[in-house]
From TrEMBL:
Protein name: Tryptophan synthase alpha chain
GO cellular component, one term: cytosol
Cited HAMAP family: Trp_synth_alpha (MF_00131)
GO MF annotation list: tryptophan synthase activity
Documented EC number(s): 4.2.1.20
Subunit: Tetramer of two alpha and two beta chains.
PANTHER family per record: TRYPTOPHAN SYNTHASE ALPHA CHAIN, CHLOROPLASTIC, TRYPTOPHAN SYNTHASE, ALPHA CHAIN
Catalytic activity: (1S,2R)-1-C-(indol-3-yl)glycerol 3-phosphate + L-serine = D-glyceraldehyde 3-phosphate + L-tryptophan + H2O
A Pfam family per the record: Trp_syntA
UniProt pathway annotation: Amino-acid biosynthesis; L-tryptophan biosynthesis; L-tryptophan from chorismate: step 5/5
Record key words, sorted: Amino-acid biosynthesis, Aromatic amino acid biosynthesis, Lyase, Tryptophan biosynthesis
Gene: trpA
Catalytic residues as annotated in Swiss-Prot or TrEMBL: 48 (proton acceptor), 59 (proton acceptor)
Highest taxon, organism lineage: Bacteria
Species of provenance: Jiangella alba
Length: 264
């Protein structure tokens, strides 16, 4: 099931879609499933499931801390696929957020096959550009998976057009230059980037990096098709006194953000 389903549902309701991220395996494989399901129940339309990797170059300290915890706990790619299967069973599209190295080591064709078998919708590849590899896109197409690439404020119009042509599902627009992490304000460049991106594609455009509350979600929902939140959810788990409290906290944040995307 493509992530476009979530965007179509949101559009029919006159709002933006809400996408939430957590890494698989933190604080445990089952614990991440519980938290992700709570997010869906509280209003998240689609989920990004992070594949833990030892060199997360665009992730800030919050996500890095959780990813390190997942790796220390022994989380494997097979575990990530198990998380995808469990979350996809809720009916919400589940996409994997992964750096290219783990997918390359697993094998592009094999990963596409196994992700599709698990019910996954696609992959967001933050460090892979469409012209940097000739194996992933054909493998994803063969198995009907979304290929979500990133555009940034620094992207030229030509680069944006090349990137969106290779995207399926949606386009991920990064609101600021830099690593992930919650911010007091979403970058001013985001609205302009969305407009430039929409000029090249009919695909939905979602904005991420820095979203931490309902007010910010509402601000972005005024001009984007989707709002992505990640570090804010991870922080709720990291700072909770126990996992049950963490799950309740991420559900509360999901509800706040879900309210935000409905006040565009």
């Amino acid at each position: 099931m493509s992530t476009t389903v979530a965007f179509e549902k949101a559009r029919a309701e006159g709002r933006a879609a809400l996408i939430g991220y957590l890494p698989a395996g933190y604080p445990s494989v089952d614990g991440s499933v519980t938290a992700l399901k709570a997010m869906v129940e509280a209003g998240v339309d689609a989920v990004e499931i992070g594949l833990p990797y030892s060199d997360p170059v665009i992730d800030g300290p919050t996500v890095q801390a959780a990813v390190e915890g997942a790796l220390k706990a022994g989380t494997t790619t097979a575990d990530v696929l198990r998380v995808v299967e469990a979350v996809a069973a809720t009916g919400a599209p589940a996409v994997v957020m992964s750096y290219w190295n783990p997918l390359q080591r697993y094998g592009a064709a094999a990963f596409a096959r196994d992700l599709a078998a698990a019910g996954g919708s696609g992959v967001i590849t933050p460090d892979l550009t469409p012209d940097a590899d000739d194996t992933w896109i054909p493998a994803a197409r063969e198995h009907g998976l979304d290929t979500v690439f990133l555009v940034a404020p620094s992207s030229t119009d030509q680069r944006i057009a090349m990137t969106t042509a290779a995207c399926r599902g949606f386009v991920y627009a990064t609101s600021v230059m830099g690593v992930t992490g919650t911010r007091d304000q979403v970058g001013d460049a985001a609205a302009g980037l969305v407009a430039r991106t929409k000029a090249t594609t009919d695909l939905p455009v979602a904005v991420g990096l820095g979203v931490s509350n309902g007010a910010q979600a509402a601000e972005i929902a005024a001009y984007a098709d989707g709002v992505v939140a990640g570090s804010a959810f991870v922080r709720r788990l990291l700072e909770a006194p126990d996992h049950a409290a963490g799950v309740a906290s991420v559900a509360a944040l999901a509800a706040d953000l879900a309210g935000g995307v409905r006040t565009r």
